Amino acid sequence: MRSDDIRRGVRRLFRLEVRRPERAGAEADAELDSFLDEQVRYLESRGWSPEAARAEGLRRLGGSLPGARTRLHHSAKHRERRMKVLEWLDDAIADVRYAGRTLRRSPGLAATAILTLALAIGANTAIFSAVSAVMLRPLPFAEPDRLVMLWEENPDFKWYQQDAAPANYMDWREQAGVFSDMAAYPSFSGTTTVTGQGEPRLLKLQLVTGNFFRVLGVNPLIGRTLGDEETWSPGAPRAVMLSYRTWRDVFAGADSLVGRTIQLGGRAVEVAGVLPERFEIPGVDVDVWQPVRWDPAARSAASFRRAHWLKVVGRLKPGVTVEQANSALQSVVVRLQHEYPATNTRMGAGLTPLHEFLVGRTKAPLLVMFGAVAVLLLIACANVANLLLVRAAGREREVALRLALGAGGGRLFRQSLAEIAVLALVGGVAGLALGWWGTRVLVALQPAGMLPVRDVSMSWMVMGYAFAATVLCATLFGIAPTLWTRRRVPADVLRDEGRTASGGLRARRWGEVLLVSQVALALALTLGAGLLVRSFLLLQRVDPGFDARGVLNVELSLPGFRYDSVHKVLSFYDELERRSRELPGVEAAAVVSKVPLGPPTWTSEFAIAGREPLPKGSEVMHREITHEYQQVMRVPLVRGRRFAESDRQDAPPVVLINETLATMHFSGQDPIGQRIAFDRLPDSTSTWRTIVGVVGDERQGTLGEPSRPELIAPYAQEPRSSMTLVIRSRGVPLVLTEPVRRIVADLDRNLAISSIRTMEEVRSASLARDRFLTVLMLSFAGVGLALGLVGVYGVVAQLARRRTRELGIRVALGARAGQLQWLVVRHGVLLTGAGVAAGLLLAAVATRAMRTLLYEVAPLDPLTFVGVPLLVLGTAVAASWLPAARASRADPCQVLRAD
Amino acid sequence: MALLKGTLDALVLKALSFNALHAFEIARWIEDGSAGEFPIESAALLQALHRLEERRLVTAAWGVTENNRRARYYSLTAAGRTQLRFETASLKSSVAALGALLDAKR
Q1: pLDDT at A553
Q2: Does B39 contact A82 at a Cβ distance shorter than 8 Å?
Q3: CB distance A31–B23 less than 8 Å?
Q4: Which residues of chain A have pLDDT under 50?
Q5: Which CATH number fits the domain that encloses residue B84?
Q6: How many structural domains are present in chain B?
Q7: Residue B45: closest CA among chain A residues belongs to which residue?
Q8: Closest partner residue to B42 among A16, A60, A75, by Cβ?
Q9: What is the largest CA-CA distance in chain B?
Q10: What is the nearest CA distance from A399 to chain B, expressed in angstroms?
Q11: Cα–Cα nearest to A821, from A796, A784, A788
């Protein structure tokens, strides 16, 4: 503020003019008239006649009188308008400076408010980055709204949104007239080894139909995309598309790579093109895309309609809605049901917008986290509002004095706004920085594949969200103190002299409302976290059915072109197992087609000899093991025997069943000795296998899912090329890593190991998503609760301060410290109790959204709903006790003399 | 002789540097001081005052004249004072340069 500039309030006070452009014209006229008057008077005093003086005045005007008036009107109006803006700016700058000064004068408050805001906005920004990347950003394809995922359903098998059979896909593609085209890819992906580029590297391979990239509308970065004919002409040379990452990392990003051949899985294939960096299919991680090959002649084969393994992506014709497409699809489905009664009688189909299908699974946890940070933001707002309110109450005399001295209420309002703006701006910027960092941490720490998209970063949308959150927050925490400032009557405040407790009553009411809502929100948040913690603890305690400690597993995949006979595959794994077993410190070693707690293996229906066919949909899981598997994993044998080394190809076919299968299908009878085939309706080609033993259940998928019925065959009787070596070590299993690597390299120098992990890591990884969500939620709740407690402390402390005199009198009259403390604490406890009650109601509704995230814990879990409120109440009592204790220790003499 | 362009502003500021004045007093100060050498166009003077006020070199307030009439009194601001020093210096050097040119012998 410049000293020469007179403030508007002062102007009004001293009846000086206020900027009013609309009055400028009249003023300019008045000034001109007064000028001419003075001039006439002066000339008359020098002896001019009135007429001559008047004429002389007009002559010296420098133009006609109306012309001069117009010019002066214009310049005066211009001046007023400009100065109005300048004065407004001056005021604004002064307000902001004033706000800065007041905030600097109470650095504790400013720091707390800014930190609170920064934390809340940072957490919001980070979570929203994920939400926007996964849920709001369109898929990186052309016109993604026209893409749908087509799937099959079958009530007999309780199938919903399942993979399609290739023949059904082909019929849909040809017969439903509403699609521009339809592509498909297997729901599984494989691996392949690239050689001739230094070390052999294992790449993730995804098969797709040749038209896949055209359907998605993706243009290659370089080269060409695949063509439909590459799927349908079996003799055509093989070509692949590379992901941007593979092209850059494995092939050094050479443009010349296009059209050249590379060695992939021992075969020479042509590189057709490279996909753009942005291209990805959410949830599918791929290095190499290769056309699936179908012989048009094989289309009528039964397996083409019986095996369901395709994800089908369709592009709707322009203008076709999802509903129209669905009804067109249904008519094809009905036709197929009649045409192929053996396979399709009960086979339905449906479609879902592609984006929804791909990211749908991630929605629930993301939205729950988003809800949590939104609640956190509200708590932060309430907290800052309360801080400001407490401060405003402390400053009420200053404010009243300024009002009495003529400061405009509007100006005080503006100053209060400026303070809020400064806090919000600094808090918002700090929050954005924190959010940027938090987003990176979130992406780095997320369990593999939790966020199905690669690029999670701050976008303009995220910035916009952070800005909106800041503005919302500023509005929320600004309302209370400013409204309060506006409504105070200065005379009341000045009369109060701070002697009675009535001063700031309204501020206290506001503060109490804020506190109750803050506690309610914090409680709801903590309850949410409590539910997740309970669920996680239960999950962690689940017995997976095996002993993970001390087990190392090594995944291997033998390339088919070199291991082209059962004999070669078997002898590789036999030798690997034998040599591993001989390593020092190894207790047992086995080879298994898949360790538990991971993606499913293959499943099939089955038949039990001498029984009616089982109902459709009675599926079992399959695994293949060597004889020491149960010793390695310490899976108990319930009945019968384990496999022996002698259960080889030439021995009679045998099988183990798990307990679940035994109870489901052999309750009350001895399964040992009964025979099983892997088809629902066995024919002459089916193999009957004798059950030799019942083994304990292992959790095949996740710890949260119950064990499914399982058939376990001796590996030698059902060989596979991709197997996992499991070794039980007497000591730390990772010590075996190097020796095992050496054995593998010794057996096959060109074999890449897919992964080496301990079984504990596998177990831990299967809990990763739950752990991550729990920790995240817990930290949000921790921050929320801490803010809530600060609020409780603040309100109670303020109350204690206001009642110091009263307490002093009570002490003087002989009250005991305990009684006084209770007087103060009671207030905090009552408020917290109200907040807890409100929070319980809120949480009862809100936690329903968490149902899908919980394991064996109801959204209204009694333990959590009792324990957490008690915790909150307890800590609130503690937070109230501090100021209460201080107040009760006050020396009555000093307190009473203080006024 | 007419005033050089830009000189009017400087003279107005100078007039106000002693005292707060209304527009006619400023006009008289200039005309009297220059012995009528610089006649002032009234409208131009008032416009100059509006302009100076807009630039915050002067402030204005309504007051009462010796003749008991309402008039707008102008006074110099700190910024106006600085501006006056600056314009004085530059005008003086211009005038000196002008004089030197006009006195030139060849």
Answers
A1: 93
A2: no
A3: yes
A4: 1-5, 9, 12-13, 15, 497-503
A5: 1.10.10.10
A6: 1
A7: A61
A8: A60
A9: 58
A10: 30
A11: A796
